[in-house]
Amino acid sequence: MHGSKRAFVVVVIAGALVGALAAPAAAQVSRPCVGSDTICEATFSMSGGASNERLTVRLPDTNLRLLSVNATPGFVHGAYVLSRGRFSEGGSVYTTTLDAVQGMPRNARLMLTFGHRSAGLSCGNIRNGVSFLTIAQIGSVRPGSFRCSVAKAVGRTWLARLKAHRSVRRFTATGIRFSCRLIPVVPQNQECLGGNFVVRFSGPTGL
User: Fold this and answer.
1) Domain span at residue 66?
2) Statement to judge: residues 82 and 70 lie in one domain
3) For a designed S-S bond to 192, which of 88, 145, 159, 178 qualifies (C-beta 3.0 to 4.6 A apart)?
4) pTM score, two decimals?
5) Residue 162: Cβ within 10 Å count
6) Residues 171, 183 contacting (CB under 8 angstroms)
7) Spatial CA neighbour of 57 closest among 76, 68, 46, 44
8) Which segments in the chain show pLDDT lower than 70?
9) Are residues 134 and 164 in the same domain?
10) pLDDT tens across 54-101, in order?
């Protein structure tokens, strides 16, 4: 190989190494899960977007599970993706990777809610209108009353009243009086409080 070719190869390899070393590392953000050792929430900013950003949640207990993922304002729903979520360090740390489109507004926030099985349940969907159902215990309740059937009864009652063009602000389900409101997050944009429970779900805002 001629001297000029050797020099060219050395320059190319050196340039590639410099480029690799100079490439910025993926951002890493750590947040505590704020609440109690049975249910808590970690909030992350999505301002300006994100690319392969590693999110770490420091949990107050080792027996929590991810109950729900919400974002605000509402129009950012679908503009981000979470992947590779996992628990580590005996369950006291949760990590996931965030990718979000550029141009996210300054007030864009991602909220991860975690709960112990005894305090929070993920209850699936109800066909034709209600999804992302969860129920959380926010006080002492009668034995045996904390279950997904309560959350689904709330979701079905709420949906039936909405379709009948009746008020969904207050109603009774499973013998418990609930008060509901629209909250500015997605997908869980509805919140109903009653009987020391909070039931959250995604529901239509009009029919």
Assistant:
1) 28-116
2) yes
3) 178
4) 0.79
5) 19
6) no
7) 44
8) 1-26, 143, 207
9) yes
10) 999 999 999 999 999 999 998 898 899 999 999 999 999 999 999 999
